[in-house]
Write a structure and sequence with these properties.
One of its GO terms (molecular function) is DNA binding. It comes from Actinacidiphila guanduensis. It holds the Pfam family MLTR_LBD. By secondary structure, this protein is α+β, with helices and mostly antiparallel strands. The chain has two domains: 3-87, 434 Repressor (Amino-terminal Domain) (Orthogonal Bundle); 104-269, Beta-Lactamase. The chain has twelve helices and five strands. A five-stranded antiparallel β-sheet has the order 2-1-5-4-3. The longest helix has 19 residues, at 170-188. It is globular.
Length: 279
């Protein structure tokens, strides 16, 4: 681990970013060149003290997950992300499966959707980053580890996952998730993360095995998606998607028709905070 070079790289990238680049207000009295350390820490989902020690070349060796979070927070390119990993003493993530890294362009779009439920999903249904309204709507889906990072795995193994959807939509949702996983399995091939996830699900869920046998591919849902919230009830939302094929990711954006009951409920969610697990 090259602490000095790592600290210098983080500082230069932080100073090269402006508040507007990451969706933050500049403020009238701002004198800091680029972003503040605490702003980068917040964007990366870690404490300001932890990030500050790394940038001051006196912190512990960051884990791979912390480095990935910093790369997203600083809007690094893939080459910059790999450079970050090497300086921190880690092997670079495989380029063949790029699903973990969110591109700077997609991050800039997400930053401008700060008041809208939106999230970036990886190729296996992993939620990589969410806006605050998205956490209020469906909960913090970035907290999971291992196979549970995939919404498909959670759907067939954790009943609490289904509470977000009205019960009458459960059958179609399960088929849709299996169809998406089938597509990832086909693209990645045997021995891939997608294949490993399929094997794990087949071993623990008879329901998944039954749905998987149907071999449905390319299943499409209606543009209207119904989600259930414990405090405001069912919302009918338009789910718009932006695909990033180079990263094998999709940006989901939820909106409601102005003047509708769901629109009013969506506005109310911003005051309720992150939805609690299992609610």
């Amino acid at each position: 681990m090259d602490r000095e070079q790592l600290a210098d790289f983080l500082r230069t990238r932080r100073e090269a970013l402006q508040p507007e680049d990451v969706g933050l207000p500049r403020g009238q009295r701002r004198r800091t060149r680029g972003l503040r350390r605490e702003e980068v820490a917040a964007l990366s989902g870690m404490s300001a003290d932890y990030y500050g020690r790394i940038e001051q070349a006196r912190g512990p060796q960051p884990s791979e997950s912390m480095l990935a979070a910093i790369a997203r927070g600083l809007h690094l390119t893939l080459d910059e992300r790999d450079h970050l990993f090497r300086m921190a003493g880690h092997s670079t993530p495989p380029r063949g499966l790029r699903g973990e890294h969110v591109s700077p362009g997609v991050m800039r779009i997400l930053d401008r959707l700060a008041d809208t439920p939106a999230q970036v999903m990886g190729p296996l249904g992993e939620t990589l980053v969410q806006t605050a309204p998205a956490m209020a709507l469906v909960g913090d889906e970035t907290r999971f580890t291992g196979p549970a990072r995939s919404i498909a795995y959670r759907w067939f193994t954790d009943p609490a996952t289904r509470l977000v959807y009205p019960e009458e939509d459960h059958g179609l949702q399960g088929r849709f998730l299996a169809s998406n996983l089938r597509g990832a399995y086909t693209r990645q091939g045997p021995g891939s993360p997608a294949a490993e996830l399929v094997d794990e699900l087949l071993a623990v869920s008879g329901e998944f095995a039954d749905v998987w046998k149907a071999h449905e591919v390319g299943l499409r849902r209606s543009e209207i998606k119904r989600l259930r919230h414990p405090e405001v009830g069912v919302l009918e939302l338009h789910c718009q998607t932006l695909h990033d094929p180079g990263q094998e990711q999709v940006l989901l954006v939820y909106t409601a028709r102005p003047g509708s009951e769901s629109y009013d409920k969506l506005q109310l969610l911003s005051s309720l905070g992150t939805r609690q697990p299992g609610s």
